[in-house]
Amino acid sequence: MKSKRFNLHMKKREAITQPEVMLPPQMQYAPPPPSPSPQMMATSPAPAAAPAPAAAPSPAPPPPAAGSGIELGGVELLSPMGGTFYRSGAPGDPPFCREGDKVKKGQIIGLIEAMKLMNEIEAEISGQVVAVVAENGKPIMAGQPLLIIKPK
Fold it and tell me: For 55, what's the count of Cα atoms within 13 Å in the CB-facing half-sphere?
């Protein structure tokens, strides 16, 4: 089929040659190196036995990080997913909660945008917000603390 703008050629499936498929080379088993003969073992010096390593004492657990929920006397509210954390519903709107606010279980404390979906994050316990750990508009990971809440 010919036109002023393009030229189209069509062929039947039988007329098209199939390209040959190149298979990767097969892996071959290589036998292990031969073990030394008894004569070689008698002539070579025996290696000195290495002393058994002493059991290392287990390291002490690290102290809680600065600003952790334990240090501030509260419970950390952890992010259930990774994404971008927002403290308010829209730019210019007041945040869902601030430090010092009292929250109830199930109250929305922020939003996490993940894969272009806005997910409401609810308080898991009732209490007073001691600190807001996550920054507005910044990426967070699953398990990262968002807030520290002092239970009632």
Answer: 2
* Average pLDDT estimate for 82-87: 96
DSSP for the chain, written as a single string: -B-SS-B-----GGGSPPPPPPPPPPP-PPPPPPPPPHHHHHHSPPPPPPPPPPPPPPPPPPPPPTT-HHHHTSEEEE-SS-EEEESSSSTTSPPS--TT-EE-TT-EEEEEEETTEEEEEE-SS-EEEEEE-SPTT-EE-TT-EEEEEEE-
The predicted structure's pLDDT at residue 58? 47
